[in-house]
Amino acid sequence: MKKGRELTPHIGIYGRRNYGKSSFINCITDQDIAIVSDVAGTTTDPVKKSYEITGFGPVVLIDTAGIDDEGEIGQKRIKKTLETLSVIDLAILIITQNTFDHYEQLLVKEFERWDVPYIVVYNKIDVFSPKKEFIEETEQLLQKKIHLFSAISKVNKEELIQAIKQAIPESAYRTPALVGDLIKAGDIVMLITPIDVEAPEGRLILPQVQVIRDILDHDGVCIVLKEREVDAFLRQTNIKPSLAITDSQIFLKAHAMIPDDIPLTGFSVLFARYKGPFDEYLKGTPKISELKHGDRILLLESCSHHVSCDDIGRVKIPRWISQFTGKQLTFDVVAGLSSLPRPITDYALVIQCGACMITRKQLINRLKPAIDAGVPITNYGMTIAYVQGVYKRAIQPFVKNVDLDYL
């Protein structure tokens, strides 16, 4: 399941078959958006629905198949249910019948593995009265409050909605500044934006638009130029920008045009810090110099797009890395959030795009297998800066207090 362009918090509903997950969603939303049936296993593939929580804002609720599904098809449904954990911001575990055993323990273990906050709801209290001892023991086990609820009579509905609002992590709906912490009110920021075959006709690409908005939100002044206009602008105006940001593909050209006393970085590097595990990128990027003949490299694109003859991920980066290292390397490219073609440990390096189309949560979870396996990771922009010899300058605005002599 893909979170795609939706940047609203995603809430997954989990539990066994016939425990009332779909009824729970219908009750919370006051809509018949999930199919309800007495037949166990009615919900097959995960289904998501947008919903507005009063006093909070929009969320996406994901109804999942029962964790206790059976048979070959059932195992596939369980697999799809667990895959949703990579895109959700909050999990709601539905229990009932005074039961909490290996199915529930499996889900809790997965919540913790994916670092997903969760709340536990004892549903159907009007049918299966919760035993005091069971509730106390389960709360002691999980160190969490068990919320008693009935999707039919709507008992404790408002209390539960408040619990959901409080449990959604702030990072799910509030993101840090892209450049706001690098500039002050009135500072001038220069954006160098080539218009080439990969630029969409009649508009700027999303990262450029987002950076422009962030500069304006922080009362900065934004100047947008094509690369061939930079020299003349600096010479004729005598304006000295507080920061210059370039498209990563022309890092070397921008490095030559922008005076050394003006901080310079790239759009993709900005997004590496904004959304990605930046410290891991900093550790992983220099590993490019350690690549050996026969190594396999994975390039991750977080969106699908038209592939041009000089595509950045499929053509330019592989060419630049091969030229820089002088090694014979193999490159795999995976677009969107598709499954990997081989085990992550087969790769000597993982290179992630700027990830402008997905959330930080999705990106962190996408890279988690590589980090856990000790496979170095980096980012498109940081890779390009490194192989073009301008890596120190590209990361300098973000690591001013770090010794860069080792790079």
CATH architecture classification name of the largest domain: 3-Layer(aba) Sandwich
User: From N to C, what is the helix and strand string?
Assistant: EHEEHEHEHEHEHEHEHEHHEHEEHEHH
How many strand elements?
14
Tally of separate domains: 3
Which regions have little confidence, pLDDT < 50, spanning 5+ residues? Answer: 1-6, 33-44, 305-309, 402-407
Return Rg in Å: 25 Å
Concise description?
This protein is α/β, with parallel strands linked by helices and 407 residues long. The protein contains 14 helices and 14 strands.
Please write out the topology.
Elements: E1 10-15, H1 21-29, E2 47-53, E3 57-63, H2 71-83, E4 90-95, H3 102-113, E5 118-122, H4 132-142, E6 146-148, H5 157-167, E7 188-192, H6 206-217, E8 221-225, H7 230-237, E9 243-246, H8 251-257, E10 264-266, H9 267-275, H10 278-284, E11 296-301, H11 312-325, E12 330-335, E13 349-352, H12 360-373, E14 377-379, H13 380-387, H14 391-395
Parallel strand pairs: 1-3, 1-4, 4-5, 5-6, 7-8, 7-9, 9-10, 11-12, 11-13, 13-14
Antiparallel strand pairs: 2-3
Helix pairs in contact: 11-13
